[in-house]
Every structure is written in C-alpha cells, then in structure tokens.
Design a protein that fits this description.
This protein has 393 residues and is an alpha/beta fold. α1 runs parallel beside α9. Bound molecules: flavin-adenine dinucleotide (FAD).
C-alpha cells in the first residue's frame, strides 16, 4: 500500500501525524520537508530573546527522534517540486514518491513589501527557525532595530527586542498597533507600555528606502523622515503557499481551498495550517491547526470527520501589556462595546442582534478569555448594557 505522504514539518504536519498515530500505529506514513524536520514551536520565535533561547535551544525534538517516536519515513532537506494528482505521486529533489493520500502542510511565505535603496536586500523576516538562527547571528552588537509592521508579530518582536535592551522603532502605515484585529481603543493600550520599554512608534507611514550608511542603515520613510537602524526586520504579514497546489490544478483562492473535511478539490489531497483556506477562512494560528489536525487524522484513519472550530482567542505575546483577542470578520456588521477600562480594556463586539461575536481583552483583563468565550453568541440581557461606548465599525 502506498503511504500517506505529508509535505511539511511544521505544527500542522506534526500535529496531524501525532493525532493519526493515536488512532493507527501501522498506517504507512512518509513526511517530506525541505527543512531539517526538527520539531520546534514557531510562536516562540517572537519571544525567545526574553526566554534566553537561541535557535538551537528552540528545537524541542530532532527530526530523527520524531520519526522514531511517530513511526514515519523521514525525507528531510527534500523539496517537493510538483504534484501529479492524476498519477498520485509527488516529484521531489530526491525522486518520486507515490501516495495513497497527500496532506499539504506547506505553511506561508512572509510578504515582502517592495523597498528601494542599496540595502533593500538586507531587510530580514523571521518565519522559521533557520530565519531565526540568522537573525540571532546578525543581532549581536546591533543596538537599533527597525521593525516594518505594527501588527501582532511586529508588536511581539518589538516587546521582545526592547526588553532585551535594543532600541526599537516600529513603522506601520496603519493608525494604531494590531489595527487589523483590534479597535482603536484597544490597540492604543499598547502604545504607552511599549514606549516605556523604549519602543519608538511611527504610524501612518511606511519604509520607502533602505540604504547603507556609515554605520548600519538609513531608512527613508514615505513621510520624508529618516531613521537610522542597525537591523531591519519586516513583519508585514504572510501569504499562504499555494503555488504547488495551483500548478497541480487544485482550487485555490487566498489559500488552498478545502472543505470542513480539510479535503481539497482533489479527493485524495488534503491541506491544513497556514497554507489552507478552510471553508473560505485562512486562520494562521495554533488553535485552528490543532482542531483541524484532530479532524483530519480521523478522516485519514477511515472515519470521515469534519472540523468544528470552537471560539479560539489569540493571545498576543506582549508581556508589557498582554492582549487576548477573538477576531471578528473584517466585514462584520455591529459595534464595539467598552465593558471596562482600568489598566487595560475589556471590549465586546456585538452583532446586529446584540450578541457577542468577538472580543478584545488587554492588560489586567487579558486573562479573562475563557470567561468571555462562554458568553459568545448569547444575547445581551435587557438592561444589562451598563454604560455603552459602542462605536460603529
Ligand atoms: C514569529 C511568529 C509568532 C507566532 N506566534 C503565534 C502565537 O503566539 N499564537 C498562535 O496561535 N500562532 C502564532 N503564530 C502562527 C503559528 O506559529 C503558525 O500558524 C503555525 O506555526 C504554522 O504552522 P504550519 O505547519 O502551517 O506552517 P510552517 O510551520 O511554516 O511549516 C511549513 C512546512 O512546509 C515545508 N515546505 C513548504 N514548501 C515545501 C516544499 N515545496 N517541499 C517540501 N517542504 C515544504 C516547510 O519546510 C515547513 O516545514 C506565530 C507565527 C510566527 C511567524
């Protein structure tokens, strides 16, 4: 019998293999990855400095040990160049591999914003452990760090780097931190605590040029101002890796399109993790991956199982001012309600029926995410609104 082939060795790949092995010890399994296959926790990349960890220290289990524990054939440093969906085989840098089912856990690529200047190539992004190793090497004796992007990842790196004593500037065309997930009143809560660590915020502008300077680099911003830096980190978002799937004729949109069974437009090919668009949604976070992996493992073991997502708040790792957010869809109709604001804010998003469909908790309220999650979907009892500060979005 041809093996189930899993492409990737990130959280999505390893979660589905781990879950599958709980159900079936013997199904033949092959993991193909273009990296080392070592298992690490990607979320730790943006708080590893505070934890005193370098890249080697982030490896939780070496690839060979994962293969022995989970009983799969490991093909590491092996790039998949094409999928032959009709012939049910993948073409790799180490030869062809037939599959019975194929799982795409390919992740996402950092978005690169076009920047002019003779040092434009020096802009780094940190999206995997190899990037992190390079970043840590370059960070030695670099005092001034410029971060392009004040979203979730940019803010986490800003907190981590500033806590470690670096002078950090964050440049973002948006109006406040993490503006894609948080309303203004919540986003602004991060400004002072991170500024107290030394973070210099530059909103409403972007980096146009990065040029070599006598020492380090000189950034020219779209508003005409200039900023010296010793290292430039880009954290402006990720784009699901869809090229292999697209070339194989699978349906793609922003991500590889799959249904609730994680099945693509080809019945033998599945996708999950940062590369996948599940029922129209790309959810590049740990919790959706864990839920998807559990459901997919059952399906691969012979019990067709759709994924059902519970409320999955995202915890932002900014210890200077912790945040938990249950994001609402960009086009959601409703209003934000401020429920408390002392050393942080507690805000609920109410839909047209006045049911809570999302929330943001910052500072002292950040730990209340389980409690808030329990109130989701419940209509607000009459008279229970208190002082409303709803802002139409
Ligand atoms: C800095 C940072 C901090 C984060 N913090 C959080 C957090 O606090 N909470 C949270 O919920 N989420 C967080 N996330 C998001 C979360 O880490 C990701 O959603 C998750 O790790 C993605 O896992 P994945 O397996 O889908 O992708 P990846 O881990 O990117 O794995 C993709 C794999 O596919 C392989 N691959 C790709 N193409 C090929 C090919 N052609 N041939 C062979 N192999 C290939 C790669 O080598 C890699 O092994 C963070 C992300 C980053 C970058």
């Amino acid at each position: 019998m041809d093996p189930i082939v899993v492409i990737g060795s990130g959280l999505a790949a390893y979660s589905v293999i781990r879950e599958l092995r709980k159900l079936d010890r013997d199904l033949p399994l092959t993991l193909v990855t273009r990296d080392s296959g070592d298992y690490y926790s990607k979320p730790m990349l943006s708080n590893a400095l505070a934890q005193g960890k370098d890249a080697a220290g982030l490896v939780l289990t070496p690839a060979a040990e994962m293969a022995a524990q989970l009983h799969f054939t490991l093909c590491s440093q092996c790039e998949v160049s094409a999928i032959d969906a009709l012939g049910k085989r993948v073409l790799t840098s180490q030869g062809e591999l037939p599959y019975s089912s194929l799982v795409l856990a390919l992740g996402a690529d950092p978005i690169r914003i076009p920047v002019q200047g003779d040092a434009a190539d020096a802009v780094l992004s940190v999206n995997d452990i190899a990037d992190y190793a390079r970043f840590r090497e370059l960070l030695v004796s670099k005092a001034r760090i410029a971060i392009m992007g004040g979203g979730l990842i940019g803010c986490e790196f800003a907190n981590d780097l500033a806590s470690a004593g670096h002078a950090v500037s964050v440049i973002d065309p948006g109006p406040w931190p993490i503006a894609s997930l948080m309303p203004e009143q919540a986003g602004r809560q991060l400004l002072a605590p991170l500024a107290a660590l030394g973070v210099d915020w530059r909103f409403g502008t972007s980096v146009s040029r990065v040029d070599h300077a006598a020492s380090g680099y000189l950034l020219t911003l779209a508003d005409g101002s200039q900023l010296p830096a010793d290292l430039v980190l880009s954290a402006v978002g990720l784009r699901p890796r869809i090229t292999l799937a697209q070339a194989a004729g699978l349906a793609v949109n922003r991500g590889i399109k799959v249904d609730a069974y994680l099945r693509s437009s080809d019945p033998a090919i599945f996708a999950l993790g940062d590369c996948a668009e599940i029922d129209g949604k790309v959810q590049p976070f740990v919790l959706p991956i864990m839920h998807a992996a559990r459901a997919l493992a059952k399906t691969l073991a012979g019990e067709e199982t759709p994924v059902v997502f519970p409320a999955m708040p995202v915890v932002v790792k900014t210890p200077a001012h912790p945040v938990a957010v249950l994001p609402v869809a960009r086009d959601a109709v409703g209003s934000w309600q401020l429920r408390a604001n002392s050393d942080g804010v507690k805000m609920a998003f109410l839909d047209a029926e006045r049911c809570m469909t999302g929330f943001v908790l910052t500072g002292r309220y950040a730990a209340e995410r389980s409690e808030m999650s329990k109130q989701l979907g419940l209509p607000l009892p009459a008279g229970a609104e208190g002082p409303l500060h709803g802002a139409k979005v």
